[in-house]
Amino acid sequence: MSATLGAILTAVGVLLALLLAIGLVLLFSARRWKPDEGSVVEQINAILPQTQCGQCDYPGCRPYAEAIANGEADINQCPPGGEEGVRALADLLGREPKPLDASHGETKPPMVAVIDEDRCIGCKLCIQACPVDAIVGAPKMMHTVIAEECTGCELCLPPCPVDCIDLVPRRQPFIWPIAGKPDTARGADDSDRRARAHG
Amino acid sequence: MADFEVGRHLHRFPGGLRLRHHKQIACRDPLTRPELPRALYLPLKQHQGPVGEVLVEPGAQVRKGQPLSRATSDREVPVHAPTSGTVTMVRRWPVSWPPGSEADCLVLEPDGEENWCERIPLADWRRAEPQALIEHVRAAGLAGLGGAMFPTAAKLRGDWKRVHTLILNGSECEPYISCDEMLMRERPVAIVEGGLILARALGAERVVIAIEDQMGAVSRSLGRALAAHDPEDRCRVVAVTTIYPEGGEKQLIQVLTGAEVPHDGLPQDLGVACLNVGTAAAARDAVIDGTPLIERIVTVSGPGIEHPRNLITLLGTPVHELLQAAGGVQGDIDRLVLGGPMSGLPLASDRIPVTKGSNCILVLRRQDVAREQPVMPCINCGECVRVCPASLLPQELYKYIEAGNHEQAESLNLYDCIECGCCAHVCPSHIPLVDWYRHGKGVLRERGIEDARAQNARQRFEAREKRITEEKEQRRRKREQRERKLKSGGDAKSEVQAAIERARAKSGRQNRPGKTGETDEGGEQ
Known about the structure:
Strand content of chain A: 5-15%
Shape of chain B: globular
Distance between the termini of chain B: 102 Å
Largest sheet of chain A: 2 strands, antiparallel
Oligomer: heterodimer
Radius of gyration of chain B: 32 Å
Distance between the termini of chain A: 82 Å
Strand content of chain B: 5-15%
Structural class of chain A: mainly alpha
């Protein structure tokens, strides 16, 4: 009788010890190899379109990525990224995709800013506003946009005192269309985030 | 002397189709020149790569062969005046690529004088430096005449230690196209000399001229040219079996060497380089005569043309002038095709000009074009896999691209597709497979551009952030320095006192002529 009890106690003891040991190992490894906060931000930032437009209420794509990683911001605040961007973020973070938050703006085709050089007074305000240094010029001299570097963020529009900046659609490379499928022309493909953004 | 490894045994590439030839109809007449057109339309971009700077102003008188655009690198290819006359303007004009688009073209109105500019041949090319030969080829504006229009100088340049054999591609495998066949018949010596020049530029010892086994006349004419102009016995003519698309660069190399050009490699990795026979003849003209590339042979053929023939055409000649020179069209014309029936491009307009890569204008009547069939779902029959010369899985590629999974298509080597059209030709469901591949490649290319753009924007944004933080930090440090100085006792006080004295002295001096009160008040406020 007592032998049986002893055996049971031993077994329970061994199991408990085992549980404790495994628990400790897990606890230790969780502390030791916790996911790198920086790399998560990097991965989120890689999905964001780098327009640096601030429509997400953060001053650029990286700050928004940091806010998502910290749980401060939601994943549906980036209009240039579009629905496809939200889906990619949801995939990365293991969350449910959701529709784009319309309060932050809507997805537009890619644009590029153009300065009407006759009207420009050389006030430098747009140069200070450009998040990617894509405007060149000097005080009281004409300014111009480096079209290749412009992300179409529209941040140069409000500061301009003479309203001489326009956004025009960016020239897109040719994409072969499929006969009978008008949506495939000019890359308006359902599954393609950027292509769709081009409309 | 040299042992000819390349082409000693003929190998087979996978897949392919045996097609009806239809070449003879355009080979009955000798090469002729159409009349000088009223105007030539010269697209600035007639090659793969960036466009150089235009050298002429509207209204400029130009002489035949005069360069009209500059090329600063091997990837830029200059355009030359095909004849003497007046450059009247630069304007948008329909071009063949992208389909249905317009591009900037120089409009040249010929004066009929054919006034040549000064031509500089390279004396004694057999002993010339390879770099000098390449320079001549580059200045003459050579771009692959087979159709791909790859800048020839860029292909020759590079320290190709391992290239032992130059392959001259004379096996235009598509039905109807016979411009290379006529060239080899009528100018065999130019091809042999051009081949030797290009081989010297590449540092290759041997030249293999690949022709189709159905070109009997070509074989004879080339044989005679070799006997007379190849004293060192460095050239061979190899007749390859006519199976479409054996004229594709990768396929021809596989037929001749038995080895496949690596997926991420170049023919040069196999010790060979491949150029079109037309390019060789143009290289000969550039080096021996000093004439730039200003004309090419164009096949005008098809059931819808009255007198199919090959025409020596000035670049920039609109297609309708060629159709006229070939007797005009006949019957109920459905479409004009640039290139062959398998991989050619439909032309949106007959005003489109001939460029360096235009090998054939095909005129098809309504009854020659396959009736539009409704596209049915893929039934996995595997016919496309059987005929694919690149050993791809066409049906899988199609499914992934249609589903928008372009990355998956890329991982199945979509970029190795040569768009030959065999798969679409045999597809029982009439799926326009090649259209899908072109579409998929376009989407992937665009994504690549977008990713690069995003990457660039990220870097610029981060650099700007860094700069702004540094500037802020600098300003803060300066302010602190100032504040410390002010707080640090008598020293600071005396300095302030001195500054005030200085200011007083200064304002006193300035205000001596009068108006003293105003300024002083202003200063105190």
